[in-house]
Amino acid sequence: MEDEEDTSFPSRRLFEETEYGIIGNLGGGGLGDAAWVPGPNEKHPKGIRKMEDWLMAHILYPEYIKAVFAMQTEVMLKNLEIYRQAVGDRIQIVWISGNDFGTQQGEFFAVDIFRKLYKPFYKKINDWVHANTTWKTYYHTCGSVVNLLDDFVEMGMDIINPLQFSAKGMDPVVIKQKYGDKLVFWGGGVDTQKVLSFGTAQEVEDQVKERLQQLSPGGGYVFNTIHNVVGNVPAQNLLAMFNAYREFCGLKLLNK
Fold it and tell me: Are 159 and 184 in contact (CB under 8 A)?
């Protein structure tokens, strides 16, 4: 490790010579993340390699799932300790998981399955972070997760990204009222499936301002799109998004 007294290293200066908060992009806690089921880093992957087989295993082989998650959690806790030694309190947020728990219409599996198979391990990870650091825990999950929000809070999630209001049951007003003092909302500022990609600049502006009005009161909101900005999004729509945000915040508008 670098000498604690030597602040000349560029990596350390990035942490310390900034007025902005810093996210530690650790990851590794995405229990059951479907992106890894195919074994993309293995030449000859074995075991469960199809999404449908993985989901069925939650019912057919729950002890196997628990064993996988126990091992993954053990690795994550060791990596968190190493990460803490490396960055200390120079970061404010640590990214834990990018696993999606929601589809457009509902959860990938029953809430009871999440509570039995996922929640205890996530709580163990989050408890370690809160007991040993000053960091806030950051999770990404798309889709309709309204029925999991209570469990997210109970297991120690601090920040949820995004809020996919285009998914079933994800009402911004209701979610803000119920969870605005329990979770930081990161995203949800404009729909990337339809409005930003295919709407008019005026529709983009209107939705951005509406979301800011719904989610900003009392703090705890970080403006961002619902998901990634994809190709072929009209430039005028991006400008409308930025300017709607800047106008709401009282900032100088960007040139049109």
Answer: yes
